[in-house]
Write the structure tokens for this entry.
Amino acid sequence: MMKSFSSNVNVESIALLLLLALMSTTNSAQLSSSTFYDNACPNALATIRKSIRSAVSAERRMAASLIRLHFHDCFVQGCDASILLDDTSSITGEKTAPPNLNSVRGYGVIDNAKSEVEKLCPGVVSCADIVAVAARDASVAVGGPDWSVKLGRRDSTTASKSLAGSSLPSFLDSLESLTNRFAGLGLNARDLVALSGAHSIGQAQCFTFRGRIYSNTSDIDANFARTRGRTCPAAANDGDANLAALDLVTPNQLDNNYFKNLIQKKGLLASDQVLFSGGSTDSIVSEYSSKPANFKADFAAAMIKMGDISPLTGSNGQIRRICSALN
């Protein structure tokens, strides 16, 4: 009996050691704090910030584009800068996927930031980390929340145009569809609503909201629809690329006005208005509309959470020297 008991203890001890080793490996693969580059490239974050501030100063809309770039990167095989890769004979990139084509912007801004960082410390700072930091710096540049960006991501050696086409949210998505998409990546309903608040800045193309402003069944505010119709003709393929601010009131300020718009039925995109249409997220929209501090705190927390989606760390992936191409 003693021998049997001893054997069981040994087996259990070995199992425990293996579990601890596995936990240690898992933890080491997680992202690090914002001090990750302090020794290897101490001026990296300041250099990125300067580059982003310059880009946003030249074009305020770029802030929205950089936040969206991070979002579109993380939602497709994780936050790994796969969205930055150009097509080659062996890689079909994500830039030409329907949700990204003639829509996602900011590639050149990331390239410029990377170039400046490479001058300081070649081959140290990943493009994936630059995209994440750029989103935070863009938010701050337009009065939005600040947060500490986790670092240590590495860059992918692959991309997926098909996954980009199927995984990214659509401007026509229902609340159920949006909730399911976000849940699949570990993001809850509160994260969904908070992150959607990024639509308090930026612009949308006419073809993405034409159906909403001209539909007889739409719940859109009539005066708001008429205003948007001035630059978005009803006829299909007429002025498809014409732009309209997502928020008429404070289009260049990342604030909680987006949620006030939704309550007034002035959400420009159908996928925005579904957040306040008698469904499960109405209460969150109402909260953010009256409590801007809650929105800012939750937006920052959701951005950190999104930045944690399936990063490549350790020896996985690579540190690209040029963000649009593999080494």
